[in-house]
């Protein structure tokens, strides 16, 4: 079995430290930063692994919140706020500029998006942290 979960905090911490040299400290509730975590897109996943992207997205969102000290809004939260048909029309291509627009519209400073795939016996997780400002 391939171990992916222990790598998530390291990946997030590395991304955060690359952005800010000092470790983030939680801001007061009124001034907290906001990060949008979009669903990981599954690529080349075998039958039976259809739930892996949603499970890892939930884990990634939780870890982003812990490591960054920011409020996290997931794509599930966004869908709950928007009409489903309108959501389908947003960012169908997954481009950075479109994702940045969604993040800015939600008042977020950053957006996290990525993919999860399987190559042989290994899961490959690719994530990017985008500054929408």
Task: Describe the structure concisely.
This protein is an alpha/beta fold. Helices cover about 40% and strands about 25% of the residues.
Report the sheet-strand fraction.
Answer: 15-25%
Which value, in Å, is the CA radius of gyration? 15 Å
Profile the largest sheet: 5 strands, mixed
Coarse morphology: globular
Low-confidence stretches: 1-7, 9-18
**Structural class by SSE content:** alpha/beta
Helix residue percentage: 25-40%
Integer average pLDDT: 75
Termini gap: 40 Å
Say how many strands there are. 5
Q: State the helix count.
A: 5
Secondary-structure element order, as H and E?
A: HEEHEHHHEE
Structural notes for this entry:
The structure is a single chain. With 133 residues, the chain is of the alpha/beta class. The chain has helices at 7-19, 52-68, 75-81, 84-89, 96-105; strands at residues 34-37, 41-43, 71-74, 110-119, 122-131. Strands 1, 2, 3, 4 and 5 form a 5-stranded mixed beta sheet that branches. α1 (7-19) packs across α2.
List the helices and strands and how they pair.
Elements: H1 7-19, E1 34-37, E2 41-43, H2 52-68, E3 71-74, H3 75-81, H4 84-89, H5 96-105, E4 110-119, E5 122-131
Parallel strand pairs: 1-3, 1-4, 2-4
Antiparallel strand pairs: 4-5
Helix pairs in contact: 1-2
Task: Based on the model shown, name its key terms.
alpha/beta; 5 helices; 5 strands; 40% helix; globular
């Amino acid at each position: 079995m391939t171990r992916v979960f222990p790598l998530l905090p390291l990946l997030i911490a590395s991304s955060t430290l690359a952005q800010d040299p000092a470790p983030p400290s939680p801001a007061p509730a009124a001034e907290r930063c906001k990060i949008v975590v979009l669903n990981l897109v599954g690529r080349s996943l075998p039958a039976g692994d259809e739930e892996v992207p949603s499970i890892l997205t939930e884990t990634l969102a939780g870890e982003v919140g812990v490591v960054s000290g920011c409020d996290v809004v997931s794509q599930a939260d966004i869908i709950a706020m928007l009409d489903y048909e309108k959501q389908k029309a947003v960012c169908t291509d997954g481009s950075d500029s479109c994702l940045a627009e969604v993040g800015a519209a939600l008042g977020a400073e950053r957006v996290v998006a990525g993919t999860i795939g399987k190559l042989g016996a290994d899961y490959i997780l690719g994530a990017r942290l985008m500054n929408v400002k």
